[in-house]
Amino acid sequence: MDGSGKSPLTILRKKLSLGDSWLVYDGETAENPRILVKKNVNLLKTKCLAHVSSTGGCQKPVYEIDGCYSRRICAVYDDKRWRVMEIKPKESSVRGVAFGMDIFRLVVQPGFDMPDEPRPPAAWDLGLGGWLGKKGFYFFIFFIIYIYIYIYIYIYIYIYIYIYKFIIILLIIYNLFFNKYYIY
After folding, report:
1. Contact assessment for residue 89 and residue 81, using Cβ atoms and an 8 Å cutoff
2. Alpha-carbon distance 86 to 67, whole Å?
3. Residue pLDDT tens, the chain, 184 long
4. Which uninterrupted H or E stretch holds 141?
5. Transmembrane stretches, by residue range (predicted)?
């Protein structure tokens, strides 16, 4: 509920559907649903729990929820597989103090409510952005590609030099034994 005691969203279960699905409405009205949430029904065991899509003309999934809800470890990914939200168990800073399963942390990434804004991928969230910065990250990728090309060219030239030396040695041995050609 908000500060005035009204519900900002209403969640209703969709009755006539093959799988579990829910409709999310604005406020306390049941008109014009905003979001459709479908439980993932897959015979293969995947980490995907549900798909979230808009209820407009396009039924393309906007978000995907992965993880294990019973252990309160879930992550919400957008259509580009960038992590936008995460649920984690609450961790205590004091050793030996444990919280129950009903106490958890919700971490929301910046830009979650702006779907058109560019967001960094999940690897960026894991730390590459923190210790490199944006320009440093691009320099790091450029440096790795440069080293890869340099090593490839070095090995290529190295092998051909040794093949060339091997052919010269064979010619010298041939000349020594058969004395047909002279190398000056």
Report:
1. no
2. 10
3. 677 777 777 878 877 766 778 888 877 777 888 778 888 777 666 777 787 877 776 666 678 888 876 777 888 888 888 888 888 888 777 777 777 777 778 788 876 665 555 554 444 444 444 444 555 556 666 666 766 776 777 777 777 777 877 788 877 777 777 665 555 5
4. helix 129-178
5. 137-155, 161-178
4 lies in some domain: no
| Domain count along the chain | 2
The predicted model scores a pTM of 0.52
Domain boundary among 93, 124, 155: 124
Question: Are 89 and 73 members of one domain?
Answer: yes
Structural domain boundaries enclosing 63: 9-124
